[in-house]
Amino acid sequence: MPSAPLPAGRSLLDLPDESAPPSSREARGAERHHSGEVLSAARDVLITAFSDEGRRLLDPFAPAAERNSRVIAALRAAVAEHRASSGPLATLSDDADTLLALFAATLGWGPAQRYLDDPLVNEVKINNRTILVQEAGRPFVVAPEQFESNAEVRGRAVQLASALGVRLDAAHPQETLPVDHGSRVHVTIHPRVAERDGALVCIRRGRRGAWDLGDTLRHGTLDAPVAELLRLLCRARCSFLIAGRTGSGKTGMLEALANSWPDTPHIITIEDHALEIGIRSGASWTRELVDTQRDPQAFGRAAREALRQTPGLLLPGETRGSEAGAILALALSGHAVITTLHARTAAEAVTRFAGYAAQPGAYMYEGRRDSALRDACAAFDVVIQLDSLESIGRRIVAEVALLDGTATQDGELRPATIPLALAAVTGEGDVRWETFACAEGGTLTWRDSVDRSPEPLRERLARLSGRHTGTTTWIAAAQSAVDRAERLLGAGEAERALSALREPWRERRNSRLLQVALRATELSPERFAAARVSALSTRVSLEHLIAKARWEEASALLSRILGEIDTAALAAPLEGWDQTEETVRQGLEREAAAAQACAAADAALGRGNHRAALDIVNAALPPDGALSLEVSCSLLQRREAALEGLLLSGDADSNAVRAVRERRLALERDQQPASFQRRR
User: Fold this and answer.
1) What is the CA 548 to chain-centroid distance, rounded?
2) Which of 43, 131, 592, 656 has its C-alpha lying 20 to 30 A from 69's C-alpha?
3) pTM
């Protein structure tokens, strides 16, 4: 997100170092000439002065306004004490510049600390000795200061990693360090960089406070009509994809939307080794941190586990790979999701997300890009495209688009998007937004009077007008619907009773609603006879898919059956739908685990570790019939390959290889159509 405009249109980096006040310039030079005894004493004073409660303020990434006054007070008191006792700090000047330079030399980042403390600076890079600084929305420039040596930078980075419990050495030369205060530090050392004592340190500064849409408006990221559109879409609890290139403000926009969400939802954030997202105090917030550098599947597992945590709003910080499948599964389940990814247009963002979801090892969608694209266009409602305009030093919302399913173009499946807002830069460098609809109360009013809202969004907005705040909103609405349906049943009006139950059922499925719906269908059996035959036929198809362990098809059909309370009631088994839902859920999990096992086994086989591949496959093979024939064959193929490798080294029996091969071939024959088998 952009910083506030600079005074007189100038950057602090445009000023040569000689323009700094003499005292400041001398202090920064003096920090390099303190003795080791002075530096050690100053470090001890600061660590002692900041209690455990205030230790986070001693962090070089802490807000300078809060930290510096305490640093100055602690060191000034120590200087006075050392003057009385002839201690190592006795000869120090006690002016603020000298004392702050001493902090920078000990616990800070030396000559780069002044830029880390400046609110106009968005990112600092330290490339060996050189310091590069970027103000929000502007290109990097080289700072006039330098570190004394490459080794000094490398040493500071290794020391910081060690303090945070992160291994940074020749075996792990590239790491992201989980620092506090919303900042992100990424370090690269030898042998990833050529110089043995060199380092590249990239520090992305976090926002000082958690932003909402009002903050983005004040910083010129959007204008008031666009902000009102996004507020309305938040109130409707839409799911958002936020796209843009590096540094365009994606995480800031995610945070702004989350902090503009209605009511007080339980928010779960998932971040990869960096604590960048800020949520306003008072929110019900669970912050989860994963490390995909050590465990590439950690992000996807955290997203899948969120299915069981029933969040009101899920924020996976950035989608970069196969975790997209798990994120998509959560969005499809009806939970609101906001995530970011790198893309240049709204349409490209959805296509890229689907591509991630279809990567090897992805949850549910591995190798099924078109299925992922269809579901992504159904699960997400809005795409926001951001851009960084270096010529004017601003980050802006370049495009807001609604998703309206998919369309085939030139033989390729593509997302269908509906423009909601577009930005244009005038010749004078101003930004103007064209909006194709406006937010009026709880409705979306299109400027040409033609309602282009996709049907799912239209339904969300329709429900919005009748939604009340509070924790018992749905419970009260459902009970009211049940009471009304009961009265209508008493009057013999079965169809009207069902109609009263449909809306709360779409909002949240519940056995009490289903029981009343069953009574409604039984009250007028002739009226529902044809629908009952069709519903029972659909249930038979579902049971067949479950028996064949075709879990993805079973899940899709079950969702269709349960989508409308009429069909759910007419097709309901005697024991209800809970057991069926649980069976399908477990089947999907087994299939996802099997797909991950295949990928892990392939990696082990590629390394020539046949024993590890065999152990992975054996652990993933459930009893016969628990997986589809296709997935079972995939596992058996890996088992066969692992046994063949062990056979060559004398660690396996040829009978074992033969048994697995025969079992695999039998399953593959079962996959062939009956007519094909007869021809064979």
Assistant:
1) 34
2) 131
3) 0.54
